[in-house]
Amino acid sequence: MAHQTVIVLDFGGQYNQLIARRVRECGVYCEVKPYATPLEELRAMEPIGIIFTGGPGSVYLDGAPQVDPAIFTWGTPILGICYGCQLMAHLLGGRVSPAQEGSAREYGKTETCFDTQCTLFRGLPETGITWMSHGDYMEKVPEGFQLTARSAACPSVAIADEARGFYGVQFHPEVNHTRHGTDMLRRFLYDVCHAAGDWTMGDYKRTAVQSLRDKIGAGRVLLALSGGVDSSVAAALLAEAVGEQLTCVFVDHGLMRKNEGDEVEAAFSPWAMNFVRVDASQRFLSRLAGAEEPERKRKIIGEEFIRVFEGEAKKVGAVDYLAQGTIYPDVIESGAGDAAVIKSHHNVGGLPDCVDFKEIVEPLRLLFKDEVRQLGRELGLPEYLVARQPFPGPGLAIRVIGEITRDKLDTLREADAIFREELARAGEDKRLSQFFAALTNMRSVGVMGDGRTYDWAIALRAVTTDDFMTADWARIPYELLDRVSVRIVNEVKGINRVVYDITSKPPATVEFE
Question: Are 201 and 356 within 8 A, CB to CB?
Fold first, then answer.
């Protein structure tokens, strides 16, 4: 089934992925394309609408990102956001100029007045808060456009040519700071582009399963299963499609949380697939002996994982396809054409040379993380696996500060399990984006009973965030922290002090290492 498609044309904006996520949350399929994508390629996608993203440039400068003005002749509705709005005005005969200090230049939360006769704002309050981030403004709007929103500093916050279906906003409707921002995007998608809302994970599951069956045929597939959300959902989808033709190699490096390896294995027992669990904990611990610096730990673990995976792949024999849990943000961030490369992604840190495969299969490469989770639910994966928080590839190795030993890992596992258990019991886990315990490399004097102790300190960490680009430390009730602290000190041998990290990101990162 072909879905209706909206194109998000990326001009280097920091919120490009967020725009696409919001569109899909509205039930409409979209893809992010670099602004330099050839027009014929874009038109071949038969989009029902196009969204120009923001960007760091100024449209009137030489070398600024542009798009062929012929795109405005297609009869396809277009929404320009921030830079995208200014670009539309610039290309259609308006004038964009640098804003003067204190006039038209706006950053952050801004009170905005809307013309609610405009389709984008119909049915919404006449005033509201929007999130601004622009140093230029539309001094003159193109012929045929009307001003549809203003602020105290800027008279041209939004423009519209309703007859042609062209709209532009200087603010960012995709961010949570803009009240009713998603409603505005929904108005564009459904009232302007006449979207049918045909993008659902249930439908994606059905079409993806059939597509995989058609592609793989009678071939064999090998997947490195980490136990993370992406690889787990990829495994479940492939198992649904090709069953015993799939072999999943789960490398248990001994750096997972309490009972996690058993839970991963149990989750895949209902499928008729070949599940290989490799207990490589001693091998990893031996290689990590003496390593204290975080980056060295990461490199050791990444390299050792590949070595173990290679060894297991040889036992499997000839394989036609190698599967990876690549998701859409990986594709976008790796860049294409003139798009900026945020970071290069590869889910398998090196392809095993012993596998003679036809190609790589990436069944999730069109999905965002929240869509991957929903697909996992459609496939029947347990909620504890689908809703699993981000867990670093090196596992607990970077939550044990300093040198790693089996005793330290066991100590951390028990403390972390208590923290997670108490948060779940209090219902706090539902509002937290990520939470965990870390074993510090600090020992301190304590008193237990009538005796002196000299034991380790455990640090607890919990944050709330929308995108993990920034994060705020979580305000957990003192009574709950007290209960966690008492249990850890009393139940976990070797711990005599518990601290709670109240540092946001930035300046800290979510993980300690």
Answer: no
Tell me how far apart the terminal alpha carbons of the chain are, to the nearest angstrom: 45
The candidate with the shortest Cα–Cα distance to 12, out of 399, 238, 341, 310, is 341
What count of other Cβ atoms lies within 10 Å of the Cβ of residue 427?
Answer: 8
Amino acid at 473: W
78-81 and 166-169 strand pairing: parallel
CA atoms of 82 and 64, how far apart (whole Å):
14
The DSSP annotation for 306-359 comes to: HHHHHHHHHHH---SEEE----HHHHHHT--TTS--S----SSSS--TT---SE
CA angle 201–172–103, rounded 5-degree value: 180
What does the buried/exposed string (b/e) look like for 388-420 if buried means 16 or more CB atoms within 10 Å of the residue's CB? beebbbbbbbbbbbbebeeebbebbbbbbbbbb
Pairwise CA distance, residues 228 & 250, whole Å:
11
SS3 494: coil
> Mean pLDDT, to the nearest integer, of 233-260?
92
Cα(468)–Cα(506) distance, integer angstroms: 10
Active site residues: 82, 172, 174
pLDDT tens digits for 88-138?
999 999 998 887 655 555 666 889 999 999 999 999 999 999 988 767 878
Dihedral sign, Cα of residue 17, residue 23, residue 24, residue 28: negative
Residue by residue, what is the 3-state secondary structure of 79-127?
Answer: EEECHHHHHHHHHCCCEEEECECCEECEEEEEEEEECCCCHHHCCCCCE
Q: How far is CA 455 from CA 39, 418, 451, 494, 501, in A?
A: 65, 18, 12, 5, 19
CA separation for the pair 97, 140 (Å, rounded) = 9
Q: Which helix (H) or strand (E) holds 454?
A: strand 451-464
